[in-house]
# Entry
Amino acid sequence: MGLRRRRRESGTGSPPPRELIEHERESLRDLLTSYARIEPIFQGVAELVFADSPAARAAVVDRHPQLATEPAGRALELVVSFAVMAGLVVSLPDLQELQAWLRGRREATPARPPAHLGIDTAPREILGHFVAAAVNADKTYARTRDASDLRRGIEVWEQLAVTGLLAEFPPESLVEAHLTVAMLYARRFEIDGRPADLERAFDLLRSAQHHVEPGSDNETLLRLASANWLMVRFDANGDPADLDRAIAGYGNLIARAAPGSVNGAVARANLGRALHVRYRRTGAPGDLARARASLVQAATDLPRDHPALVWVQQALAYGSLRPSTGT
# Structure
């Protein structure tokens, strides 16, 4: 497909910088190398991606006949999806053209008995790359307020859903991905304010809830995310029922958390904020006392480098938890 030699012109009419081309080549090489450790079919896909001519492509398919099968098409679809998420703007058109070429080759090849390929049996490892990229996108947004990677993550997920790739995975293997994508949709709601995004986040949490393993880390993350997004919806709409449900959710999570756990500490910090919000609305002194106690414990339990610690310490230090004077 010419990743080695071809240079696609940019919108300005000049070729992209050599550094960008090399960066994208290395990104693709790293991705395909990691995939090949999971499923050998990606070794053939890697050779195909870096083939320099139609003749070279045909030679690769001759060496790897499984490339002319449907699982190979799904494998290449994953590579294209992650190229979209990683913003590989130079390589993406070539990858999409390669998809069309491989599809034509597959349609012209006599049908073979289906092969037993690990792409159908190793969903956790394959989806793990997406989850890691999505988590990094959220961290990038938190640090820089640049939401471009976050938006690309949603685009990739929606592309995976449309192509039917997600149907290849057992529902229980999608729990972590559902939790992560729910986070992306909720973040986009915070940015754009579209209610459909937050509803989509809740839909994904409900899907995860049906298949999450009781007592697992994912169950803890599910409970934390559910309460967090209720607070996000309360901040947007002001429905006190959402606030009450979030407070109950944080309380349930804390009751189940191991002493000193990070998730428990984060839940305490969020509970403190939620109780303080409710105190400011209702004036109930019990909420104020509980809010302060939760934040004091969170300040003790949170790791020193946790981003929530700064807010907790400021809330305690600057007197924001003193009783209201009514003025």
Remarks:
- The chain has a mean pLDDT of 84.
- The CA atoms of residues 98 and 176 lie 31 Å apart.
- The longest helix spans residues 123-144.
- Residues 240-319 form one domain.
